[in-house]
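Here is one chain, start to finish.
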Amino acid sequence: MIIGIDIGSTTTKAVAIKNKELVKKIKTKAFDAVTSATGALGKMILEESITLQEIEKIVITGVGSSKINNNIFGIPTKKIDEITAVGIGGMYLAKQDNIIITNIGTGTVIIEANQEKIIHYGGSGVGGGTIVGLSKKMLGIENIDTVVNIASLGDLGKVDLLIEDITDKDVSFLDRETTAANFGKMLETSGKSDIALGILNMVYQVIGVLSVFAARSKNITKVVVTGNGSGNPIGQRILASVTKMYGVTFEYPEDAEYATAIGAGFSD
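Its structure:
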């Protein structure tokens, strides 16, 4: 059995791989890398009644992996860089290669992956951390699930300047309901739900457009979305509007939030 662990800035994910099959996945929260890694492994062992002798090796990745330089619980432990892990995990989940992967975590990473190479195109500091930070300051809310819930009741037209606000015609391929400027209107009557929707819209539009540019550069018409932000229902809706404008589709494979840990586990 191989354990893959993705040690993030706030959330750590772990997967167990046996006979080249994904058999278990868990996640924990901790701000210390060692606590995160050992806690995730301990949870895995206890929940699945796994013995240490069954674990052949542990592969760690993520920002917190740099803090761990010894074997965990005496089990051979190696590191893999996060970009490679995302690429391997994304290809495994998508069941194909030659893909563009957009991994939405605290920030956003965009990768081209195939069996021969994994290329880091770049990305953006705009991601889940942006949503949490802006929501904390503007709304007094830190929990991203709460932000999503109240955003579902929001009216984007109360915070964003839309095409229809500046012209009575469509502009190029943009229809009149498209955002012309994020937070470019901000009516005094806008409430928390409207602002929450505006934050999500800004973040996912940036992610979507950057992903489109990456995909188009390789004549690819599909982007595989992974990471914590992949399962956000409002984010998915916003990316669907990006598809409508640019013709590049976004896919969300099952277990997408575990892609990096999965890539670590399957790296050998």
